[in-house]
Design brief:
Helix content: over 70%
Mean pLDDT: 88
Number of helices: 5
Largest sheet: none
Number of domains: 2
Shape: elongated
Number of strands: 0
Radius of gyration: 24 Å
Structural class: mainly alpha
Strand content: under 5%
């Protein structure tokens, strides 16, 4: 089994392609979106619907940028928390000088 770093380096780690939300409402909402999309396609006609799809593509691009920024921010926050915890490790681990043994 590869380490996480090896998998990341080799391009084998793509969580955005494999994540499926566990919320039980996810799949029913996806089906509802698909059904409504078809209804709008039939109502608007192909040309107008294509323009609407272009608008939705732009919205998806903005949403993706926000999700990416949130992921990076969360990852950095988590890494900084680990750094903070590990930098204060000596406060938590007794040593021989304190007279306390593990």
């Amino acid at each position: 089994m590869n380490s996480i770093l090896e998998a990341l380096y080799r391009g084998q780690l793509n969580p955005d392609e494999t994540i499926v939300p566990s919320n039980p409402e996810y799949r029913p909402l996806g089906r509802q979106i698909g059904a409504m999309t078809e209804q709008w396609r039939n109502r608007l006609g192909e040309e107008t619907f294509r323009e609407l799809e272009e608008y939705f593509d732009l919205c998806d691009s903005v949403d993706s940028m926000h999700v990416e920024a949130a992921f990076i921010h969360g990852f950095r926050l988590g890494a900084n928390m680990i750094i903070e915890v590990m930098s204060r490790r000596e406060e938590l681990v007794p040593n021989a000088a304190s007279g306390v043994s593990l």
